Sequence to fold (234 residues):
Amino acid sequence: MLREINLDEISDGKLYSSNDMARTDCKGCDGCSACCHGMGSSIILDPLDVYRLSINLSKPVNELLAGPLELNVADGIILPNLKMTGTKEACFFLDADGRCTVHAFRPGICRMFPLGRFYENHSFQYFLQVHECPKTDRSKVKIKKWLDTPNLKTYEKYIADWHFFLKGLQEYVMNLTSNSSSNSSSNSDSTARTISMHVLTQFYLTPYGEDGNFYEEFYERLEKSQLFTQSLGI
Fold:
């Protein structure tokens, strides 16, 4: 999601690498699930998130989109996000006790909370969100351990590559629709839909192999998509 942030307002003012220590450990949350409620459509999922959910739940993506996931427009591009349900707007994956039923393969945003990512120069660093988690007695832990993600360097490169690829498409679509006249708005909408359907089909709906070579397949698809975007003049 494209947004301008003031780190001084939302963080402790520091930027971290995965080898740094930060106050992220909530001691198992002690039954708290505040961060899993009322998030609207903001928990946007990247292709690896959806792949892991599909593989571990043994459900095709289309079935997930009919249940725990939904599609919404994020800065001009249609993307999947976690669905909030009920009067308490709880994540679909919470059980009756407020515990995560997919914790072992939870999405990346959930995995790093209360950290966020600050992107620049085709890379990113982590920052600690100071207003999002109600726990005030968090202890320090190495970020690498907190993220609990295999092949972390490969994962971080993938996240950066996906972010900047998607950002380019989002900026293109947003500029296209904002600068279109009434006479060309239908063409702009059609182009935006074409781009969204390409992203959904290429990176989410088309199954990945179950042999664990997600990153290899992702980069093959990314290379093809870069040719597609070049054909649009992006």
In short: The chain has a mean pLDDT of 90. DSSP finds eight helices and eight strands in the chain. The helical segments are 7-10, 47-57, 61-65, 108-112, 143-147, 152-179, 185-205, 214-231.
